[in-house]
Design a protein that fits this description.
The chain is an alpha/beta fold and about 250 residues long. Helix content is about 45%, strand content about 15%. It has one domain: Aldolase class I (TIM Barrel). The structure holds pyridoxine-5'-phosphate (PXP). Pyridoxine-5'-phosphate binds next to strand 8 and helix 10.
Length: about 250
């Protein structure tokens, strides 16, 4: 039996670190813990504005992945700078994403419409020339039209943007049209033998209907995992601090 892969997106650990500009929490440590727990892949997004993942994180996290014989998936925009960085780093996967400086997170899929497809094609060809071993996925909206456009590009997979599905799940809205679109997209795309991945906004609960549908072979999940990890770990960390404090009675008070 084949099970889907989990890619843990650890950008959100870097977000906490960058708020203080300190070296902790270390992103590579989050990578190691995720792999120890069974993740098959670590996903990081080196944004043009470096708001979370920094340049030094990329080789550090890659080192952890290599040591554990697991995959590094580098999300990046289609810029010359990112092409250079990726060419040096040689990640296992590159996921091409759209990037707008003002957005809070990646808000939509890559534009693969008629006016932009040539640019995407050209960028993928450049990547394939520099990095023949690296696989490429395109972070796109899940519609059959988009899938048809992606089939004209030298890519190895699509990652379907599940952001709106995940929001609709949280607000208990009808999900059938999303699931229907994913099925129709899969029907168009999977015949090519290329990968069909999903990511954005997913939680333990919202991923379930997708797992039941059984079409996606990879899920990249970050924000919910890191959010939930706070609650799983908070009590333990407070206990550690209290244990230390209780060994140290105050000296100035009789
Ligand atoms: N996949 C892609 C392409 C993304 O840009 C993101 C967000 O960085 C994710 C997956 C993970 O999304 P989330 O952090 O909401 O789980």
């Amino acid at each position: 039996m084949k099970y889907p892969r989990l890619g843990v997106n650890i950008d959100h650990v870097a977000t906490i670190r960058q708020q203080r500009g300190e070296f902790y929490p270390e992103v590579f440590r989050a990578a190691q813990l995720s792999l120890d727990a069974g993740a098959e892949q670590i996903t990081i997004h080196l944004r043009e504005d470096r708001r979370h993942i920094q340049d030094h994180d990329v080789p550090e996290v890659h080192q952890v992945c290599k040591k554990n014989k697991k995959l590094l998936n580098l999300e990046m925009g289609m810029t010359d700078e990112m092409l250079q960085i990726a060419t040096l780093e040689k990640p296992d996967w590159i996921c091409l994403v759209p990037e707008k400086r003002q957005e809070r997170t990646t808000e939509g899929g890559l534009d693969v419409g008629p006016s932009q497809i040539e640019r995407v094609r050209h960028f993928c060809d450049a990547l394939k020339k520099n990095l023949p071993q690296t696989k490429i996925s395109l972070f796109v909206e899940g519609t059959p039209e988009v899938m048809k456009q992606c089939l004209t590009v030298n890519c190895d997979a699509v990652e379907i943007h599940t952001g709106q599905y995940a929001i609709d799940f949280l607000h208990q809205k009808d999900l059938s049209h999303h699931l229907d679109m994913y099925k129709k997209s899969w029907e168009v795309f999977h015949k090519s033998g290329r990968g069909f991945h999903a990511g954005h906004g997913l939680t333990l609960e919202s991923v379930l209907p997708l797992l039941e549908q059984g079409l996606f072979e990879e899920y990249n999940i970050g924000h919910w995992i890191i959010s939930e990890a706070v609650f799983v770990g908070l009590g333990e960390v407070v206990k550690q601090l209290k244990t230390l404090m209780e060994k140290h009675p105050m000296k100035g008070i009789v």
